[in-house]
Amino acid sequence: MQQISTSTLSKNVQADLNLNWPTQAILFCAIIIACIGLNLNSAPVVIGAMLISPLMAPIVGIGFALGNSNSKLLLKATRLMITQASIGILGATTYFLISPINTASDQLLARTEPTIWDVLIALAGGFAGVISLAKKGGGGNVVPGVAIATALMPPLCTVGYGISHLNLSFTLGAGYLFLINAFFIALATAAGTIFFRIRSGQHLNVSVRQEILILIIAIIIIIPSSISGYSIVRKSYVDAQLSAFIEKELPNQYIAKQSIDHQHIKLAVIGRRLTQSQISKLKSSLKDYHLKGYKLTITQLTKGNYITAQQFQDYMKQQNNGNSLQSDNDNQMDK
Questions:
Q1: Going by C-beta distance under 8 Å and a sequence separation of 6 or more, which residues neighbour residue 272?
Q2: Is the distance from CB of 141 to CB of 149 less than 8 angstroms?
Q3: Confidence check: pLDDT of 248 > 60
Q4: Quick one: pLDDT at residue 332?
Q5: DSSP assignment string, 12-68
Q6: Which parts of the chain span the membrane according to its record (predicted)?
Q7: Is 114 helix (H, G, I), strand (E, B) or coil?
Q8: If I label 21, which of 67, 272, 273, 299 is the partner at 20 to 30 A Cα–Cα?
Q9: What are residue 298's DSSP bridge partners?
Q10: Quick one: pLDDT at residue 1?
Q11: Tens digit of each residue's pLDDT (9 = 90 or more) over 190-220
């Protein structure tokens, strides 16, 4: 059975805290690989980049230094993390400036809206990592697994994409995700280090002031992600209620399009034409599906009980023009 040792943890953590050119060259290569994967929307390529990235080392080093109140090691690890993050952002920005593919892929978009779940993943990953590093005989594939689960590389690449395209929402969103991952991995590492020190009978020298400061910072960082997480849960719930409403109240209608915008539900339907009284009844039944306060607008694409091909084409053309106009407006706002 492998034993947990604080000396093993210290040895493994400090072994990778070296500011040398081979490590930084590997990081730069990993950043380029990750950028290509994000650009081409290829998850396997992104995962490969995370496996070879050395970004975990300084973050774990910061947590270990906090758990030992070692200011010299904390400064060394922080300096290394800032250097590596700067190299990553610079490399990503350069890549996306010269890349012929300018469209934001799903892989890029996924890194722009952090939630409370990212906090939980970083904490769990941090704990797994510090336990792995404290095991005599090595931690096997746990640390690379933590690097993949917490996804430190993609947010930095997305920051570079945002900078290269002057898109502030991408830059801030991805930067916040990287901050969440780095801070809570370090926090989990610090907590694990303190636990192992207590377990081995070592005297703790972490002041109450330091603990309170870290707690305050953690709460400040968590707040925006909690709000975002609540919004996602709320949206998922409303979508489920709307699906139930459509299935029960409009069983004979084909829903050509549906959207929810600021408590305004818009449905475009094809089927037997609904009377005004039927529409009024549908609006009043929203409260039965916990959608009280929502406004319902139904656009009927049929004349009588049928729809011609021309009518449907005209409607789709109108929607496409509207979406194009909205996209142009969004691009102007980003610029």
A1: 252, 253, 302, 305
A2: no
A3: yes
A4: 44
A5: HHHHT----HHHHHHHHHHHHHHHHHHHTT-HHHHHHHHHH--THHHHHHHHHHHHH
A6: 21-40, 46-66, 78-96, 116-134, 141-163, 175-196, 212-233
A7: coil
A8: 67
A9: 267
A10: 40
A11: 988 888 888 877 777 777 787 788 889 888 8
Give the domains, in start order, of the chain with CATH numbers: 6-206 (1.20.1080.10), 238-334 (3.30.460)
Q: What is the pTM of this model?
A: 0.75
Q: What are phi and psi of 298, to 5 degrees?
A: -115, 120
Work out the pLDDT band at 97, boundaries 50, 70, 90: very high
How many residues in total does the chain contain?
335
Token pair listed for 216: 């305050």
Q: Would you call 205 helix, strand, or coil by DSSP?
A: coil
The half-sphere exposure of 167 on its side-chain side, counting CA atoms within 13 A, is 23
Listed in order, strand segments (DSSP E) in the chain are 253-260, 264-271, 295-300
CA distances from 153 to 18, 45, 158, 193, 271 (A): 19, 12, 9, 25, 49
Copy the structure tokens of residue 238. 């409303």
